[in-house]
Structures are given as C-alpha cells and as structure tokens.
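User: I'll paste a sequence; please echo it back and then give the predicted structure.

Assistant: Echoing your sequence first, then the prediction.
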Amino acid sequence: MIKEVDLLTMEALLNKPCTECGGRLREKLVSQEFEREGRKVRLSGIRAWVCGKCSEIYFQPGGADKVAKAANCLFDLASTERQHRGTITAKVS
C-alpha cells in the first residue's frame, strides 16, 4: 500500500517506525509498474520513503496522485500509438 504524508512531518517520520510493521524508513528512488488491458508502463526514479522491513512506500502529499496521473498518460500514449506489446518506461531524473 502507498501512503502520503505531510512534507513538514517527513523528517520526523524518518525517525519513527513504519506505521504498518515498526520497521525503519529510508529515502529511496523507487520504480512502479502498472498493467492495464495487456499493456504495461513502468515509472522509475520516483523519490519515496520505504520501510526496510515490509517495503511499505510513503510519498509526500500529492505524490501518489502524480504517479497515477503519469501512468495514465503513458497508458494513453500506448493506446494512441497502438502499442499492444512490451512495456513503456519513463524515468524521473
């Protein structure tokens, strides 16, 4: 499950345990893959905070919505370009 947290509390969150399992959070660049109607899109290089124990992912406010919006745009591109196989990949840098 992906969670959003208030940016102002992110520093404090890094010093607290994961809300799911009590593990420690680390800042990482993550990849997310989505599949719809046989098409796959992958977003990589997304800044997030991830639990080292259960891999719960935390984004800053609005982050999860932006990831979903980017994935939807890539699905639209795949549909427009009639791409029916393979994976469309976008890297954040």
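The longest strand covers residues 39-51. Strands lie at 2-4, 25-36, 39-51, 57-59, 87-91.
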